[in-house]
Design goal:
- The chain is of the alpha+beta class and 181 residues long.
- The protein has one domain: Class II aldolase/adducin N-terminal domain (L-fuculose-1-phosphate Aldolase, 3-Layer(aba) Sandwich), CATH 3.40.225.10.
- The chain has 5 helices and 9 strands; from the N terminus they run H-E-E-E-E-E-H-E-H-E-H-E-E-H.
- The strands form 2 sheets. It has a 7-stranded mixed β-sheet, sandwiched between helices. A two-stranded antiparallel ribbon has the order 3-4.
- Strand 3 and strand 4 form a beta hairpin.
- The N and C termini lie far apart (44 Å).
Length: 181
């Protein structure tokens, strides 16, 4: 059994490896205008303090992939809520990444037999966070590999890749990057 401190260290190392892989191979066209992110959690995550992600997210700077800060716990990002919501349905799924939505990107993901689920904004219940509800609504029959949100009204469409590990998700994004060209 590993200590809590050791697990936190291993999560940061694994997430940092994922970010380094993405920095070397991710097609920046996959990043949404608002920026993307990737997260990885502790095994028994309870709240945002147990979720690590890129502080400030991932953006495009001078035409290149640019992590805005280091990988850290408790960054207060939306991706923390996504991972925590998914873990309520399947605690093994401890990682997520956010990329930009496009019909082409979604088709490429579906072509490689990845299970995808879309958020239906017409069914959102009042008084519940749209993001939390949307993620949970896609997980009722099992956690999909991809949850997509085409965006409502003036919001940007996003794709959330879900997985057991940040490096696995990074590799999926890299494969997608090669196919999008």
């Amino acid at each position: 059994m590993i200590s809590a401190g050791q697990e936190r260290h291993e999560v940061i190392l694994r997430l940092t490896t994922a970010v380094e892989l993405l920095a070397g191979a991710m097609d920046i066209r996959l990043l949404p205008p608002s920026g993307g992110n990737i997260a990885f959690t502790l095994r028994h995550a309870r709240d945002g303090r147990d979720v690590a992600s890129v502080k400030g997210g991932i953006a495009v700077l001078d035409g290149k992939f640019h992590p805005s800060g280091p990988c850290a716990f408790d960054t207060g990002t939306d991706i923390s809520r996504i991972v925590l919501t998914v873990m309520k349905f399947d605690p093994v799924m401890r990682s997520a990444a956010v990329i930009g939505y496009s019909e082409r990107t979604l088709r490429l993901l579906e072509d490689v037999s990845i299970l995808c689920c879309g958020v239906d904004h017409t069914k959102i219940s009042p008084g519940i966070s749209t993001m939390d509800w949307g993620i949970a609504s896609c997980c009722t029959d099992g956690v999909p590999d991809v949850i997509y949100d085409k965006g409502a009204q003036k919001s940007t469409g996003l794709i959330y890749l879900i997985g057991e590990d940040a490096v696995t998700i990074a590799n999926t994004i890299i494969i997608l990057s090669h196919r999008i060209q």
